[in-house]
């Protein structure tokens, strides 16, 4: 049996070897062949090298869901107190203490509980922060993600309600801030 295997493998190896190339013919020395004239007027074709431009294209090697990951600006504040369970339009500004190096604001939630806020205090369900406390209003900045994935700051003003003003006049106004710092009223 081993002998037949050896004979079969030798036959396969000899059949798989490269055949010898055919012998080359010597060139005929009779008549010289006529020379073909080269076209001198033909322009040389130069192929341009392709350069990839990633502008406006997403990176195919990054996960698709990474676009929707929570940024540091959008991450919820773990130390946010009870003011983060209410929307900004549910909170009411009832008092401001100004004239100090660090002014204070007094907010009231729908249950009637009062809270003091300073600059940097987390407030609202949209993870906003108090950025300014003025004599008659508090400005809260929230970061919202657009449909394109871009995160933009949105400023909301909570105005101090005075006597004789009705509630619909004092609803919070959302101000969209451009990169130049100019406020633009956002339509909802």
CATH classification, class level of the domain at 69-185: Mainly Beta
Gross morphology: elongated
The arrangement of helices and strands along the chain is HEEEEEEEEE
Given as residue ranges, the uncertain stretches (5+ residues, pLDDT < 50) are 164-170
Detailed description of the structure:
The protein is mostly beta strands and 188 residues long. It contains one helix and nine strands; from the N terminus they run αβββββββββ. A six-stranded antiparallel β-sheet has the order 4-5-6-7-8-9, with no helix packed on it. Strands 1-2-3 form a three-stranded antiparallel β-sheet, with no helix packed on it. The longest helix has 15 residues, at 2-16. The chain is elongated. It starts with a helix and ends with a strand.
What's the quick description here?
This protein has 188 residues and is mainly β. The protein contains one helix and nine strands; from the N terminus they run αβββββββββ.
Q: What descriptors fit this protein?
A:
26% strand, mainly beta, 188 residues, three-stranded antiparallel sheet, 1 helix, six-stranded antiparallel sheet, SH3 type barrels, 8% helix
What secondary-structure arrangement, pairings included, does this model have?
Elements: H1 2-16, E1 92-97, E2 104-108, E3 114-117, E4 122-123, E5 128-133, E6 137-145, E7 151-159, E8 173-177, E9 183-185
Antiparallel strand pairs: 1-2, 2-3, 4-5, 5-6, 6-7, 7-8, 8-9
């Amino acid at each position: 049996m081993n002998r037949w295997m050896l004979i079969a493998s030798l036959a396969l190896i000899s059949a798989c070897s490269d055949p010898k190339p055919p012998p080359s013919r010597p060139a005929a020395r009779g008549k010289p062949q006529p020379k073909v004239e080269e076209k001198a007027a033909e322009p040389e074709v130069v192929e341009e090298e392709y350069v990839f431009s990633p502008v406006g294209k997403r990176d195919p090697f990054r996960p698709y869901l990474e676009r929707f990951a929570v940024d540091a600006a959008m991450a919820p504040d773990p130390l946010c107190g009870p003011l983060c369970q209410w929307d900004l339009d549910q909170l009411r500004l009832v008092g401001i203490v100004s004239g100090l190096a660090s002014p204070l604001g007094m907010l009231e939630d729908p249950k009637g509980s009062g809270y003091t806020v300073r600059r940097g205090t987390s407030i609202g369900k949209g993870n906003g922060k108090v950025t300014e406390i003025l004599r008659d209003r508090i400005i809260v900045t929230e970061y919202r993600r657009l449909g394109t994935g871009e995160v933009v700051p949105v400023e909301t003003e909570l105005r101090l309600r005075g006597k004789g003003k009705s509630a619909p006049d004092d609803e919070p106004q959302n101000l969209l801030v451009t990169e130049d710092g100019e406020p633009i009223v956002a339509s909802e």
